Amino acid sequence: xxxxxxxxxxxxxxxxxxxxxxxxxxxxxxxxxxxxxxxxxxxxxxxxxxxxxxxxxxxxxxxxxxxxxxxxxxxxxxxxxxxxxxxxxxxxxxxxxxxxxxxxxxxxxxxxxxxxxxxxxxxxxxxxxxxxxxxxxxxxxxxxxxxxxxxxxxxxxxxxxxxxxxxxxxxxxxxxxxxxxxxxxxxxxxxxxxxxxxxxxxxxxxxxxxxxxxxxxxxxxxxxxxxxxxxxxxxxxxxxxxxxxxxxxxxxxxxxxxxxxxxxxxxxxxxxxxxxxxxxxxxxxxxxxxxxxxxxxxxxxxxxxxxxxxxxxxxxxxxxxxxxxxxxxxxxxxxxxxxxxxxxxxxxxxxxxxxxxxxxxxxxxxxxxxxxxxxxxxxxxxxxxxxxxxxxxxxxxxxxxxxxxxxxxxxxxxxxxxxxxxxxxxxxxxxxxx
Length: 434
Hints:
alpha/beta; globular; 434 residues; 55% helix; single chain; four-stranded mixed β-sheet
């Protein structure tokens, strides 16, 4: 089916003849099977490492049903279902995603710069968006106009911004929404005018760098065990970020990493993320929590999260020792874990939930503390299923957090969640680090 320019710019869409489905936890994008006004949203989600689902439409009837269902504010798409909202208006959606995934600067001034740059890029992308609908006799003229605006109005601004800023990115010292949209603009213009960057060396470098920032999933280097990597796996899974694992099988695998110079302090876990090769578990967890807005809204909430997480880490340390023990020593260690869990740690979290009166430990949204507490609860329950018998609020907390779609998926068989080390495999794991 062919679409007019108006259908591309203001497409009519709707869910098919079915009731709305329960979302899988991924953002759900409803639009045409084309770029249009949704493409910038796809780019930004991809840059943040967030998987999304797409629903494509191709009839006016599909749109009418969605409008009648009340899902389309202002009767327009793009429509993005995210975090329980049904969002429309492209800029509003992009602003939310940029804010949610820390691509919107560190303060109001940086945000203003990002907004200015993004709006300029949108002006250029509007020309690219309309170009396919140019009458044949006007295509050459419109292409020349696009080149003139790109090379004389827009790209010179960004070339100068990069030179004067003296950083790897347009704003501040880290990747932002502005970098993502500029990369999209560059590539879409290059499709029409391949040599458009020939006079802009800074933009050529920025394009290469941006490709690197968007090049892939986090890569986790560790052995095939829980250990100090498991909380990292949990946190990435909770925010819906796919990751790859490079599992160490032998001592030689670890030595190769050390000799390569990629292991600061010669230790794993090591996580490759956003162009960095990060070590030290707490540092990695802090970065992921901050990047994906699991670290509270202010310094006070962050302090609470840190206190709760550090206590959970104390309990997890006991589990790491428990995993590599055997026989009576293993039983004694687990008895110690249950004692500490039920007399020191779980009573505190039960009281916190009661006093706070919210669904979460800190503030009114999911944080790193919630994710890591659930991880600890489930590990204790593996050996003592009734460990929460005296903690009704923690029972409700466990059910509630376990049912978050991304976490629910991680708890299913076949996920990247690790099981306890089988006793027969303990020696092999220990030899990697001995």
